[in-house]
């Protein structure tokens, strides 16, 4: 191997203009290869030529001449990147890099968690946020979580302003602090600059914990009227401070505090909560490390530039959609409403400005908050809007804060979609948000109604060393102008798995007796609605079971002449032969040998069946 006798800067012949993707158009010196002596260094950007070749030295590289070769070092510190040129290809690269970071966070969370709900059902979401808490990118996890997490991040930023240090990690689940419902615990971590002085980004992970205390195992009570009945309430906690996990503080909040309320217990599987929260913090740290690597690779200025441009691209796509649909429909006002099974109304008027591509989503006329737990916090409403717009945009854009910027949401205080701080909300994130999506799609006349709920099913033991299990059950999706509805699918705001039968029966004292498609439950039409499912579980010991579901009264409607999908049905099959219809929302104390049979709704059909 040749050695470098002396390192010195080479002299160029002249300059030429070269376009580099990282810097734009720059003047680069040109060197003759034969004029370079041993030890001469050519720093990029530059060009080295001879009679048979042209060697381009990129801005981040340096070429050193040896006696018989050039050695190009590409590990030099990156040059400053110009913000004058935003390249479409690089914009796509950054959008996918940001999303890739969130996906790797999710894989880390799944691998290090222990609960069935997170490890097996994948009931979690991970995302990256800007310094001010705006959603930058997310992995394709659970839409109900992704569109609402920005509220939690921003609440923590404001709450801890001036008291945020490297090594801190925050925990929250309270709807008043941007949460959705209490089982969804959000872990939030700051990403600092190299000096530890300025927050550049935030990473966050939200996971549905199978039990956080309250009046029933599973923390999804069918009959809760106030939020304290649903489990531990944490507005804000430094769960990690100066790098130290605060387990005693967490025990007080999740086990001791809930048990002070009448009829309530603390978290029934606290060690699972601890392990999964640590897994969420580890997932955030994975994201922090990857963001730091991205900045090192491209420089902070470039990463920030493309972060803003990725959000701007999503915003422009949504504005273009609003302008396009106003032209196609030849109107700028769109109305729709639908009713929950208790008669509560969700009323929406969308008013589009065809010039700017902005829109008012006005929910005036929506019913007051319910004396029940299907109230949906404002963050959940935001999630429904941002998810639906992402579905409607005919372009490959990431779901981020840009999607919601053209929207002005008008939500009446004290309504079903913006309840008071003390209102019960357990089912709002699993039932009302699904109906909200149907209403938005109905306003734009996009497709028929889907099954309209997540069919939240829980069971467990309410005692010391007890447990709680939670799952959501699929249904049929609505048909559209050129597609049939999907059978047995977690649609819209949920994107989780069902627990494998082997895992369910190994970990819990139950048997899965049936899990099948509910044939004929999809609405007929030119395009048929998707079929719901039948799920029947037998209990091997005495325990508590509960169901929170919708579309047991009002059928999922069809569109353009299509017929509605079948209503759902929940049956308690007692060991003595009795069959009891428990309705859409019920809490039961089941005996060994009893079964619960849940039949989920089908989707509505589209177009007249006669065509």
UniProtKB/TrEMBL annotation:
It comes from the Eukaryota. GO terms for biological process: glutathione metabolic process. One of its GO terms (molecular function) is 5-oxoprolinase (ATP-hydrolyzing) activity. InterPro entries: Hydantoinase_B, Oxoprolinase-like. Residues 88-609 form the Hydantoinase B/oxoprolinase domain. One of its GO terms (cellular component) is cytosol. This is 5-oxoprolinase. It comes from Purpureocillium lilacinum.
